[in-house]
Write a structure and sequence with these properties.
With 271 residues, this protein is an alpha+beta fold. It has eight helices and 13 strands. It has one domain (3-270): 4-Layer Sandwich (Glutamine Phosphoribosylpyrophosphate, subunit 1, domain 1). 27% of the residues lie in helices and 31% in strands. A hairpin with a 5-residue loop joins strand 7 and strand 8 (189-195). It is globular, with a radius of gyration of 18 Å.
Length: 271
């Protein structure tokens, strides 16, 4: 089982300290690696740019490197300026398919405009890549890739909505998943969705942040030890086979539901 975590920054958030934020992310890596120490990575989405780092290292080893510190300094520089910081998604990997030494297998997965992290196992990825081989080219060996390849594929029609693309992709996916996702075409949005595996979400309205992780104590230990916000995070429940889109610019959220593979097959047979 892997771990995911991240932060959504609302447009007028009050979190201005780049050094403290680097400390928060470093602590989240250390907390989350309990579920995976073979690889890790993160994506930092800004209004006009995105920065991705992934390596076959544990979180606690990555955060000791000069590369990580340089990445954080460059990615967070002037984070409240013209190119505002919008969201960060992170991952600690326990590999079930695809060697971590091939960095393309590590998370975040980057496919077209879609950047995503996944906790879980997709058990029909080979079948799906074969079925969609005329429109999707496989890049790596990891099962996670098919999730974001499908979403990217279904996002391509002009004026299509990302939530609709998620809803079109999920009925094909066998297995279990909890995912966090960014879209470079919609940098103000942070997408979370799950089938079977958990996502814990806490909102901190006083400073304009939303944090999520596989386990709630990752958030509490990774954030509240750095910021004096003990017990002030309000939970957002995400039921099975559902998701939420945070519009970080407008300070709004929209929940949605979708059909998983079993539900889709049952519906087909019933028809």
């Amino acid at each position: 089982m892997c771990s995911i975590f991240g932060i959504g920054f609302y447009k007028d958030h009050k979190f201005k300290d780049e050094a403290t934020l680097t400390g928060v992310i470093s602590r989240l890596f250390r907390e989350a690696e309990v579920s995976g120490r073979r690889a890790c990575g993160l994506s930092i989405m800004r209004e006009k740019s995105v920065h991705v780092l992934r390596r076959p290292l544990s979180g606690s080893n990555l955060i000791k490197t000069t590369e990580y510190l340089d990445f954080m300094n460059n990615s967070l520089k002037d984070m409240c300026g013209d190119n505002k910081l919008m969201s960060i998604i992170g991952h600690c990997r326990y590999p079930t398919q695809g060697s971590p030494e091939n960095n393309l297998n590590n998370h975040p997965q980057v496919t077209g405009s879609i950047i995503g992290v996944h906790n879980g196992v997709i058990n029909n990825d080979y079948e799906l890549f074969e079925s969609f081989n005329k429109v999707i080219d496989r890049i790596a060996e990891v099962d996670t890739e098919i999730i974001f390849q499908l979403i990217n594929h279904f996002s391509k029609p002009k004026m299509s909505k990302t939530v609709d693309a998620i809803r079109k992709a999920t009925p094909y996916l066998g297995g279990n998943y909890a995912c966090a996702m960014q879209n470079t075409s919609h940098p103000y949005n942070l997408y979370l969705f799950r089938h079977s595996n958990p996502i814990k979400i806490l909102q901190y309205p006083k400073i304009g942040l939303t944090l999520f992780a596989t386990r709630e104590h990752f958030i509490q230990d990774g954030f509240e030890d750095f910021v004096d916000m003990k017990n002030q995070g309000g939970p957002i429940d995400l039921i099975n086979d559902s998701g939420v889109v945070f519009n970080l610019w407008n300070h709004t959220l929209c929940k949605f539901t979708f059909k998983n593979r079993q539900q889709s097959q049952e519906l087909k047979h019933a028809g």
